[in-house]
Amino acid sequence: QLEFVESGGGLVQPGGSLRLSCAASGTTSGSYAIGWVRQAPGKESEGVSCISSSGLTYYTDSVKGRFTISRDNAKNTVYLQMNSLKPEDTAVYFCAADQSLHKIVVLTPEFWGQGTQVTVSS
After folding, report:
1. pLDDT greater at residue 40 or residue 29
2. Which secondary structure element, helix H or strand E, spans residue 103, and what is its range?
3. CA distance 43 to 18
């Protein structure tokens, strides 16, 4: 069983930056791929970015070049640095984990966090 502490969400103006953190706890958290799925009002959920235990990364097309995911295995924490934020990035961002990175991308991870709100607005 994995549990998460998510932080870093908030309100930011367009063009601004935020860094999301997902601290995972559990005996095998280091072997899991961890990433972020977002849910915007009236829209389908979307796998934003994820990183495998070995450092393989995935980004959805709309965030490539703006978001960077990283992982500190010593702290069992994954970070999502979000730059050049746009209003369309507004969503609840959920931390998710699975032994398969692909399962996070297709929105069927084994474990989910509680979510953190990101609002991009002037």
Report:
1. 40
2. helix 101-105
3. 22
